[in-house]
Structure formats: structure tokens, C-alpha cells
């Protein structure tokens, strides 16, 4: 045929390396083994060592058990983490439900009201709450103006819970949402045509199908809360000290590695036990939005009990809905949810915006409302060599982190998509592990490792530490687009004469570009906003922006912090909106 | 009602209309369905079939019009209180419930007692021959089995009207034909009134008592299958159901004063009244016969003929189709019996038909 004659044949090669897809995860495996598994294992080892002799010893754990202060801290940590997770689920569920019902385009826009708070720096959010909740803060000003009582909301449990729930709500909503949007709308319609009133259809069909998302959200919020220290340190009092704060004190003030290791082990074991429990009930794979696989127990007593309870809830709420509709008219039910959603979104978004006027205050104090306006505090920020070098370092480290994490995480996601089914669980668990293990444990472990390697207070050390933390985000972002990617396109490319690499470069990468860019940006933000690793690994002259903010917040609140907060907030929001734009145009 | 007709329609769609913004999904539509009837909505993609079904079920609110079931106005009745069953194209089985729980769902919603519920579920599953799979979850079933569960879930509570939206669309041909027989049997045994949606004309012809042909958000023609086939009322109807040769042209008079249609392919006599100044002539392929020898000029007066070259021979088992390319570029299809002598490719041939075999449509 004439056509065949004009097209050069694909050159046959004698030797072609046959890398299985699993090899793509190798860089990630190696990196995490050295900078994640090793330091965490070392830290756990330290907790079992006698500091003098190096012999095996349980002293650290015995001390933990015998000193009441520590037991109390343990109890407080559990209490706050549990309450935070519960409140985040309860408050977040209706919002996620509302978002899930929106048409796709509208949801894409409204979800930004959750995504921006999600990525907003914890430091900025906490700083904002200090302004809002303080004795002379915004809320008390409003209360006084209305002739109300003085509210005591700072440096107590109420303050911590407000701050924690505010910090965890977006995570809860964003974890529940994919499961909810994955629920087939036609199931609700089917329930309707089969005779189920809306309230019953919700409880009997929609609610049970949304459970995997709820459980995943509960898991992630609980684990993240366990290792939290920013909010309790700044919004709580002495009686709200949490485990992670103890770890910091043990390392920074006492240099007691053994005891810090024991505390870290406690955190780690709790986190892993929660995960294990979750895996037993739901299967870890449902974290990635895959349909939950049901174990043998799926047909058991527990399921029957659950269905029975749902039946009761359904009957009760259907009766209630009917009664409400009869008394207040059908309009009320339709307005109830949107009304709630508006209130919750105000709670999510408004506090952060409080830093804006403060940043432009003419006062030397964090008064609200400011007595006058000016750009004085931005001038202070811009003319301070400490702040500027911290800012530049944060940008540089974040950029490097994003680059490395995207490459390693992207390859890992490719491995996940292409590897045999039985390897997938392992790849998935390994790349997500840094998200499950409390950050403080990773940070302290890295500090110990870096101290030996001479990487403390270096940009390289910071970048490595941040890459460990950013990897899961980059991995998930790329894995998400790969899930909907049609691999037959690569087969098509192969039949047209492209080898594996060419197909990857010319077909796969252009099509998943959106996910790769998202991975880069998420990794960037993770690093830009990172404090835990920075507390230990950056020090002296190599401070980062969050670390500098933290030091100032501990030492003395000042309006410069507000100016810096605005800068951080603007940078992160700009990056997010950029990502959103790219996602839409791509 | 004072003077109810002897046979009240089971379902009346009265002037129902729906638009989505500028898109008209359904023009005002009238449709009567008799008790126990199997009516099929047939039409190309986007012609408004699903919309009409959703309106009847109450899943979508109409812009105008009414829905009467047994003479009662049900337009404002919420979905869950209409006595209607709906079978979805992709089954819409509840993934977290077992087969028997899925089938029992509508009974539970109707407050059916546990014992009776179990018995009726059992009976419904036996009817679709799935009683041995009742503890399975939907994802543990094949496509055909899932579809049968969906059917059982619908038939179990004996709704007086059953709507099915392309229920067999996701199945392969073999399974589809099997399920068609199954659905026919269920229809016979339950005596339910069924409105069925498909865009597969063969399926429509095989199942229906009547076909309602839809196009561009309108009902094009309603009638028993034979009637639509033999007397299409539009070129669309002729084209959509069965194969047709369609010639478009102007109505004129012959020298003898007989009406004829002047088309680019020739001037053709026809029977009956012309619907307007312009019209389309529909000739079914089986009404055409081949004359191997073109008899130029000496046309038998009673016949219409077209001459061309054989462009393609399509063997279809029970018949062979001959595609003839006319000089003006049009293609005419002739259906030949399997034992007929076949012309060669490229051979000049003449096809002819009797004027009374053709139908003139607007
Ligand atoms: N929710 C909707 N929003 C906007 N337009 C819609 C919506 N549903 C249907 N349409 C439009 O209404 C028209 C009719 O749609 P419908 O789904 O009824 O077609 P159909 O006959 O069922 O087609 P198919 O055979 O492809 O299922 C189409 O043009 C469709 O785009
Ligand atoms: Mg349709």
C-alpha cells in the first residue's frame, strides 16, 4: 500500500528496559523510607532507651503513667479531639449536603467558600480569633454595645473548641463532599417513585450512602486534632494543654528525647488505632472516594441494627416534616437549610477577614474598630530584614517543595493507577501515611535525624521536611485526575507507534495537566503555611514566615502580624484562585 | 363526571409542556393511555421522551398542562403519593440494600406488615426468576439480573401505571431480546398500564400495543405499529420506522389531468389527495420491483419507475437489499427475496412501483 511506504516503520530496538508500573513509586518509597519511616522509627526507639546507658528501658512510659499532669493532658487531648471531630461532622454535614445538591457549575463556585478557609493558614485563622474573642475583642465590643455581659471566650476550652472546629470544619466538609456528589441522584428519584417521602428517602437511601464520607471525615478531623498545638497554645489556657504542646516543651526546653518520643508514640498509636478501626469498618480505600468494599460482616447483626435505627429516624423525621409543613407551611423547610448554610459560611469566612482592618490600623494595639487607618504596619513589615528574609525563604522553600513533591507524588499516583490491584493498597497507604501520622511526630523525628546529618537550620532540611508533608496532597491531586483518565488512549497511542514514554509525554501528561498543576499548588501552599517542621528545623537566621509569626504571637501580639497575615492570606488565596481558573479552562 | 365514557382512559396527559430556559423539552402534548395498554414512546435522542416520562412520574414540574390518572387530577400530587412505578434506564437499585430489601422497599413505604412483605417479595422475585439471589447486593449481579430486580421492585407493589425509560438500553442484543419477552409476559400477567420509552424501533414494534412517535419535543404520530408503518403521516415517521425511499417534490398535473409529483428523480403518479403544493412520496423497499431491462420510453402507464445503476448489494439474511444510485445522486433501496436473482454491481436497472403502494406525506 502506498500509505505504508511513506510512513517510516517504528524502529525496532534490541533492548528495552521493562519497568513495571510499580517502579514509578520507587522514588517516593525511597524518599519516605529515609525521611519519614526512619525518623519516626528512631524517635520510637529513643522512647525505649535509657538516656544515660542506651539500654532498653520503659522509664519514659512509666513516667507518663505516674505523673498526673501527663495523664490529664492525655485526657484533655482526647476530649478536645473528640469534641472537635464530632462538632465538625455535625456542623459540616448539612453544608456538605447543600453543596452536593447544587448543580455542578454553581457548586464549583460555592465550594471556594470552603476551600479558601481550608487552605488559609492556621496561624492567620488563630490570630483572627484572638482579635475576635479577646477580652477587648470584636465580640465583646459588640456585646458591650448591645448592653450584654462580658464574654469569656479566650484562654479557655470554649476558645479552643471554637478555634479547632473552625480549623477542622473545611476538612470535614471537603472530605464528605466527594462521597456525597458520587451518590446517584436517580436513587433519590427512585425512592420517591417507590413511595418514600423526601424525609424518608433521605434517611433510608441518602444518609447510609453518605456514611463512608462521614466516617472518613471523622477519621481525618480526629487525627488532625490529636496532634494540634497552634490553637490550644494561642486560644487555650493552662488547662487546655494538648499532647503536641508537651512534645514541643520536652524537646525545646528540656531536650528530653526519650520522653518526647514516648509522647509521640502515644499520639502515633492512637492515630494508627483509629485508622485500623476505620479500615476494619469501612476500608481505607474509601478515603480515595472508591466504593466501600463490604466485609463479611456486611450482612450481619450490626447492619440490621443500623438499618433499623435509620428506619426509626426516617419515620420520626417524616412525621416531623409533615407536622412542620402543616404548621408553618412548606416554605419554612425550604428556607431552613439555606439559612443555616449562610450562617455557617459566615462563621467560616468572616473571622479571617477581621485581620484586614487591623492590618491598616493607625494604632499600636489590636483595637477594634481601629481608631484610624494607615499603611504604617505594612511599612514596618517591608522594612524589616527579618520579616523579608523569612518571606523570601518561605517562597523559595515552598517552590522547591512543590517541584519535588509533584514529581515524586505524581509518579506515585501513576504507579497507583497502573500497578496490579494487589499493590495498590500498599502504594496508597504509603503515600498517604504522612497525612495520618501526626505532624508533630514527623517533625520531632526529622529534627533528631537532621541534627545528626547537620541539616538543622538549612533550607535543604526545611525542603525535605516540607516535601514529606506535602507528598500526600500532591499524590491525591494527581491520583484524582488519573482515576477518570482513559488508559485505552495509551493503547491507542501504542498502536500508532508511540513507546511508553512518548505516550506518557504526548498523551497522558497533556490530559492530566490540571491535576499536576493542582498538585504543585497544593504542595506549594502546604509548605508556605507549614509551622510544625519549621519550629524545629528552621531556627536563628533561617526562619520562615510561619515560624516568625509564631514567635511573635507567643511573645507579643502586634499589628505587624496583621499586615503579615494579610500578605499570607492574599498569596494563598491568589494561588487557589489561579488553580481554580486553570482547572476551569483546562 | 356526568356522562363518563364507557372506557375511561387510565392515564391522560393533557397539554403538558416543559421548557428548560430557552430549550423546549416538550411542546404542549396530549396523550391518552387505555387501561392495560402497552404504549411506547419512540423517538430520536433529545426528542423529549424522558421529559414526558418524568413529568408523568412527578419528578419534574410541568410549565403547563394536567395529568389525569383514572380521571383524577394528579398534577400537583408529590412523587411519592402518585401510584406510579418507574423503571430507570440504569436500574437505580439501592446499592446498600440487598435484592430482597430493594424489592421490599416500596412495600415498606406503604406500611406493609413484615410477613406479607416477605411473601410478596418472594413472589415478585419468583416472577422474574431471581428467588435464588435475594440476599445478594446489586453490585454482585449481572446487568440482566439487576434489570430484573428493578422490574420486580416495580411490579411488586402493583402500581396502576408503570413507566419504563429505556430499561433495556444498557443490555446487549441477545439479553435485550430475552428481556423483551420477559417484559411482555409481566405485562400480560399483571395487566398493568405501561408507558415504555425506547429509541429502538424494532423493540417498539415487538412490544407495543400502540406507538407514540416523538420528534423535536412533539408527538409526531400515534397509532398501532402496522398503521404507522403502512400510513406514516410525515416523512419523519416514514423514515424512523422501517426503511423508506422518500422523494420530495412539487404537486403538478399530468397531460391527462392526473395529479403527479415532480421530483428531481422523475415525475411520479400517486393515489389520493395531495397534502399541499409540496410533498414527499414514501415508497417502502418491498413495494419496489426490479426490471433488469430498462424499457426506455415505452413506460407502462400504470407504473412509476426510476432508472439507475446498482451501487451496493446488502445481504441481510432473510432478504437482500439492492441500493440503486440515481443520476441525480439520490439512492433508492429495493428489497429482494433471498431466492431472487441478483443484479450485478454497476448494472443499469429500473425499479418500479404501483402508484397505490406509495404514500404521500406533507
Ligand atoms: N435538566 C435539563 N436541563 C436542561 N435541558 C434539559 C434537561 N433535561 C432535558 N433537557 C433538554 O430537553 C430536551 C429533551 O430531553 P429528553 O431527555 O426528554 O430527551 P430524550 O427523548 O429522553 O432523549 P434520549 O433518547 O437521548 O434519552 C433535550 O434537548 C435536552 O437537552
Ligand atoms: Mg431519555
From TrEMBL, chain A:
Record-linked CDD domains: TM_PBP2
Protein's membrane topology: Multi-pass membrane protein
Subcellular locations according to the entry: Cell membrane
Organism annotation: Tistlia consotensis USBA 355
Keywords: Cell membrane, Membrane, Transmembrane, Transmembrane helix, Transport
Membership in a protein family: Belongs to the binding-protein-dependent transport system permease family. CysTW subfamily.
Top-rank taxon, per record: Bacteria
Protein name: ABC-type spermidine/putrescine transport system, permease component II
Keyword Transport applies: yes
Example GO biological process: transmembrane transport
Gene Ontology cellular-component annotations: plasma membrane
Domain ABC transmembrane type-1: 74-278, 391-579
Main localization category: membrane
SUPFAM superfamilies: MetI-like (SSF161098)
Transmembrane segments: 22-41, 76-99, 111-132, 158-179, 191-209, 215-236, 257-279, 305-325, 337-360, 395-416, 428-451, 463-482, 503-525, 560-579
Automatic annotation (TrEMBL), chain B:
Any GO CC annotation of this UniProt entry: ATP-binding cassette (ABC) transporter complex
Entry superkingdom: Bacteria
Keyword Nucleotide-binding in record: yes
Residue ranges occupied by any ABC transporter domain in the UniProt entry: 11-241
Biological process, per Gene Ontology: quaternary ammonium group transport
An MF annotation (GO) of this entry: ATP hydrolysis activity
The protein's name: Putative spermidine/putrescine transport system ATP-binding protein
Organism: Tistlia consotensis USBA 355
